[in-house]
Amino acid sequence: MALLGECCSVALAEAGGSHSSHRAVYLQVPKTKTIDIEFSDVKFSVADGRKRCKDVLRGVSGRFLSGELTAIMGPSGAGKSSLLNVITGVQVSGVTGSVGGVSVAAAHRGASGFRKESCYIMQDDTLDPLFTVHEIMTMAADFKLGSSVSTKAKQLVVEDILETLGLSATRETRCCRLSGGQRKRLSIALELVDNPPVLFLDEPTTGLDSSASLQVVSTLKALARGGRTVVCTIHQPSATVFELFDHVHVIARGRTVYQGSALNVVPFLQTAGLPCPKYHNPADFLMDVATGELGDHNDELERHCGHKDWRGERPLVKDQSQEMTDKGTRKAMVLVRKPSEFDRFWVLLHRSMIQLYRDWTVTHLKLALHFVVGIIFGLYFADAGWDGSKTISNFGFFMCTCVYLCYTSMMPAVLRFPQEMSTLKKEQYNNWYQLRTYYIAFIVANIPVQMVFCTVFTSMAYFISSQVADWSRFVMFLSVCQLLSIMAESIGLLLGTTCNPVNGTFLGAILTAVCLLFAGFLVFLSHMPSYLAWAADLNWMRYALEGLSLAIYGYGREPLECPRTEIYCHFRVPATLLSEVGMRDGRYWVDVSALSAMIVVLRLASFVTLRRKVSCNTR
Ligand SMILES: Nc1ncnc2c1ncn2[C@@H]1O[C@H](COP(=O)(O)OP(=O)(O)OP(=O)(O)O)[C@@H](O)[C@H]1O
Fold this sequence. Notes:
By secondary structure, the protein is of the alpha/beta class. Helix content is about 50%, strand content about 10%. Helix 17 packs antiparallel against helix 20 (about 540-555). Adenosine-5'-triphosphate (ATP) binds near residues 77 and 82. It is found in: Membrane.
């Protein structure tokens, strides 16, 4: 990698800001800091499942220059995405060689400066379907430009980028309703907000028709001409699209078989004794050769492409900032200070709140279901709260409440992070925010919602089943329910970040069933074999059940009423139940503390596993 010029901006130099903490953002594609990326002898191997090594990249070298639009091409499985992943630092294990003048390992530790300034638009780039184009762009501007830039200036940046990428007409359209080409352009637009000097794109034209592909690649070319280094992988481009590329790097079976200008492909193949038929798309012919359809010429091509530099003239880069000054246009330059994590926390919180509000399946539907199920529970256990002859049924009500809260909190949580993983990976790679900021914002936004669901269900079930009308007991009961549902959600988050969603939901269901077994309901704590008592001590459901029982029957509750028809009312005195089920010596505060401690441990553990999952390779 080489810095070709200290042309970041005059304003930057005047401000005395370092490149890492300040960046100049123009309201139109500017000439920015220019970065060339050089990589040499890059090798990447993976275990192929039979304890043997498969060489995916076998010593690939090359240079991607600023101002140029580069395509990495090759047959399917040749190693295009792998090369991009190695250069961007997404793939580190099993890789040797150097990128940006330093070894791959050192580059991963942060020695390669271009990575901090580059953005990577992945193939399966997901855009939140709940937001409009304008909203999602505004959020990107808030993340990247922070509060040092006024809202008005941010809006100008957003409008300008939308205009440049031909998205102004869709500004009020929700992302889920955009066409494939518009989605790709929006993914690019999001990353342009803070004007990155390097853009990597994995197959930006996949799934697009020829005119949309042409639009996307033309956009990329315009961005490259603004001084950026733009590199993308691409499959079989049309002749028109192919000609737009300034530089093409072709890989076949992990080796470079051509690197040079798109216009030099035909003369190159001619030199290698492979004349391209007249009226044939050179890109198609090149792919036919690389796939071996015309015989195995890869060794020959590899030799020939090393003999001569097939690269074309370096294109002239447009200095648009200068252009703007010359024309005296309204376009202004904004000096950006890197936003604080605190600023980003508020943006994340705001985003989570909108998501919760707009996704009616997450909030409205669940709220309605908790309300209805709470009523059903209450009716099913009607009178169990005051009637001494139904005390065992009431104990069953506590157990059913625990199981219901566990399942309804745990299962959605298992799917929560896997659903957001691709967005999270992209935003993490592109330095939108730190993972801990995201995690804290998630907790702060989510816990109150969880508490509201739990309160709705518990209140309905509590009062309809005629539990004791004592506010302090109700608060104690509700607090345990809240802790249990947050606890179950924590387990779900941990499972979602350690296993895949299918295994996670299966394990969650099994875990809840085992906890039910050791909770002290099916086998009372007093009847449990002593050598298995430890299992109950580790069981969050046991603490919840005990907490609920003590909240209702502990602390000197008056004897219950019994119907006249009952000749013998065994559980009339509440303490009798507590003694029989082995909870007489239980302490409410111990149960609450145990649940709280487990929540803290599990939330920390899920953060660690989430970080591992986000930072692990794309595969
Ligand atoms: N982390 C990995 N573990 C195992 N195999 C891998 C890994 N990364 C790449 N490969 C293998 O390396 C080969 C090249 O994969 P890569 O995705 O780079 O190809 P590609 O040229 O981008 O293909 P396509 O155009 O079909 O996307 C494939 O056979 C793939 O299975």
